[in-house]
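Request: Could I get any protein with tokenized structure?
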Amino acid sequence: ASMTQLLDSVLQEHGQIRVVVMEFAHFRSRPQVAAVDFGSLVRELVRNRSRLLDCCRNSETLDSAIAAYIWHLSYDFEVGPFMRIYFLLKTNGLGEHQKFIARAGRTWKGLSQGVGVWRCEAAHTNPIVAAAHGVVTSDSVRRVKEAQRAFWYEVQKDEWLRIWLPEKQRAFGMSEVKKGASLSNAWGNNGERYASGAFGLFKMCGEIV
């Protein structure tokens, strides 16, 4: 099953969603990123990615807001390995997505024992990612295409610049479509600021990723 089918199925069920793009990493100074074994950094991110997604599935306050999600692991020279998640949220009321963002951010910091940093910015430095943010309705061809373009960008980036991962680990995946949607078993098991005092170091540098 493809990401296009995932998005189509979610829109078929809900009619309207809000795409929220969050990025998660572990804070270290630039010398620390250079000094720590790369494999250790990646394994830590992979472990906490699994834990975060488990929390999203098992926490009622998080799970009840999520229609689906797509994730990708990548690398930045400033922060090291990081994860980008496109959350496809149900539009359950004014400001509900902001509550979700805050809860997801707190969850990340908690499971990473305080070293986790995250961001969620509508004005992302990458215009493809920035365009995906916001409400997508089933009858808006432009918004559907913008979201699909961002999702496929992550696939293409994974093909061009795949991050090294431990054996049998994947750099990309997506959720299953929840009960009631037409698709099941999908493959893959307003300017919020950084949520850490160290946010100045968690930025994209060089190539826009």
Q: What stands out?
A: Residues 38-58 form the longest helix (21 residues). The mean pLDDT is 77.
